[in-house]
Amino acid sequence: MAMLLLLLLLSVSAVSADEDAFIGVNIGVALSDMPSPTQVVALLKAQNIRHVRLYDADRGMLLALANTGIRVTVSVPNDQLLGIGQSNATAANWVARNVIAHVPATNITAIAVGSEVLTALPNAAPVLVSALKFIQSALVASNLDGQIKVSTPHSSSIILDSFPPSQAFFNRTWDPVMVPLLKFLQSTGSYLMLNVYPYYDYMQSNGVIPLDYALFRPLPPNKEAVDANTLLHYTNVFDAIVDAAYFAMTYLNFSNVPIVVTESGWPSKGDSSEPDATVENANTYNSNLIRHVLNNTGTPKHPGIAVSTYVYELYNEDMRPGPVSEKNWGLFDANGMPVYTLHLTGAGTVLANDTTNQTFCVAKEGADRKMLQAALDWACGPGKADCSALLQGQECYEPDNVVAHSTYAFNAYFQMMAKAPGTCDFKGVATVTTTDPSHGSCIFPGSTGRNGTFTNSTSLAPSSNSTDASGCSSLHLHGADPFTTSVTIGILLLIMAFA
C-alpha cells in the first residue's frame, strides 16, 4: 500500500507551475446598501486588486470593469444551469450576451459554471459536464477558448477522508460526473475549482483540529500533522485539503489538472455558538493565507506550485440568511471602510492609493540587522529624533528588537523632517509606506491614532540588552525571523509586487 501511494505521489508531478500564484476576491451582492459598480471598481483599483470573481455576469459590473485590466471570472448562476446544460443554443446565447459582448474591453479570463453543484444542486449534476462543454463550444466558435477557461467550483466536502491526504478520495457517488469533468478540464487545459474553508473544518472537528492549525499559525514540529504514507508534514488545514484534492484526482487517474481555490476566508463575527468567528482570527487567517499564496509556497505535495486563491469576500453581506457569521466574511463594509487591518510580513512598496494622506517610514523587509542598528543609533543620536518612547518601560519599548525599534526611530526622524525627499532611506534599509505601524498603546508620530497591531507571535526573540539614554538598543538577535508589520486590507491584496 505504501509503495502504491509513493507511486501515486510521484505520478502527479505533471502539475506545472506556469505562472506565479495570485490573490483575488469574490464579490457578493447580498448587501442592503450595495455600492454601485463604479464604486466597487473604484475600490478595487484603489486597493490594486487585480483578480475578481463575480457570482453572475452582471452587465453593469462588466461595463465598469472594462479597460481596467482586472482579470474577471464570471459565473453561470445555479438557477440557469439546467437550461444551459440541456441546450447548446442556450449556452451559446449566454456566452454571446455575457462574454462576447464585453471582451476584449473587459478582461474575462474564466467562467465558473454553477457553484458547488454536486452538494448544493444535486439534481443538476447530470447536466453539469454538458453545460461546461456547451459553454466551451461557444468559446471555441468565437476563438476565445485560448483566453477563457471553463470550470465549476466544488465544495471540499466532496472529498472523503481528507486526512491523511494520501488516502483521500472523492465521494464515489459522483464518479459518473467527476471522471468526465476531469477529462474535460484536462483536455481544455483548465483547472479544478475548489472552495476551501478551514473555518468549517475546525468548527466541525469538535476540538480535534487545533485552532492554530486552521489559522496557519506556526506549530512546533511535534504538533505538525504527518501523513504516515508519504511522510509529508502539514502545518495547516488549507494545504492538507488542497493536497487531498490532488490525491483524490490521482485515484481517478488524473495527474495534471491544477487547482485554483475559488473561495477561502474566515468570518470576523459570529453568534454565541461561533466563538472563534472574531476579528482577530479573521485577520490572522486571511493575512497568513495571502502571504502563503503569494510566496508561491505551494503545498507539501507540490512545493512551489501555484495555488491561486480568491478570498471570500470583498464586502460583508448583511442580507445573507443563516447565522451571524454568514454576514461577516467581508474585508470591507459597504461604505468601503476596512473591517480590520491585515498583517503581512514586510512593508514593501505601497501600490494602493493613500486615502488618508498618511505616510510613514519603516525598516525595509530583509534589511541587514547590523545596518539597521547603525541607522537606529544615528537616528536617535546625531539625527536628533525623539526616541524616548523606546526606553525600557515606555509605550514603544515592546517588541524589543532592532527591527521594531529602528522602524520607530526612522519614522520619528522622517516626520520630524516633514517627510522631505530622501529622509526615509538610511542607506537603503528604510522605505515609505501608508501602513500605520502603530501598535497597541505605541502611537507613531504622524499617526491619527487609528492603528494596526504588530503580530509578534513569530517576531524576533527579545534579547537581553542595554538601552542608552536615547532609547536606542544594542540587540543580539536570535535567528532571522522576518519583520512583521500591519498592512491595510487592500494593500495586502496588492498582488504583492514588492520593489
Distance from N terminus to C terminus (CA atoms, Å) equals: 48 Å
Architecture (CATH level 2) name of the largest domain: Alpha-Beta Barrel
Query: How many helix segments?
Result: 15
Average residue pLDDT: 82
Q: How much beta, percentage-wise?
A: 5-15%
Look at the structure and give the CATH class of the largest domain.
Answer: Alpha Beta
> Outline, from the CA principal axes?
globular
Structural class: alpha/beta
Main β-sheet, spatial strand arrangement? 5-4-3-2-1-13-12-9-6
The counted number of beta strands is 17
Query: How would a crystallographer describe the biggest sheet?
Result: 9 strands, parallel
> Can you tell me the CATH topology of the largest domain?
TIM Barrel
Describe the structure.
- The structure is a single chain.
- The chain folds into two domains: about 350 residues, Alpha-Beta Barrel (TIM Barrel), CATH 3.20.20.80; about 160 residues, no CATH class.
- It is about 30% helix and about 15% strand.
- The strands form five sheets. It has a nine-stranded parallel β-sheet with strand order 5-4-3-2-1-13-12-9-6. Strands 7-8 form a two-stranded antiparallel ribbon.
- The chain has about 500 residues and is α/β, with parallel strands linked by helices.
- Helix 13 packs across helix 14.
- This is glucan endo-1,3-beta-D-glucosidase.
- Its EC number is 3.2.1.39.
- GO terms for molecular function: glucan endo-1,3-beta-D-glucosidase activity.
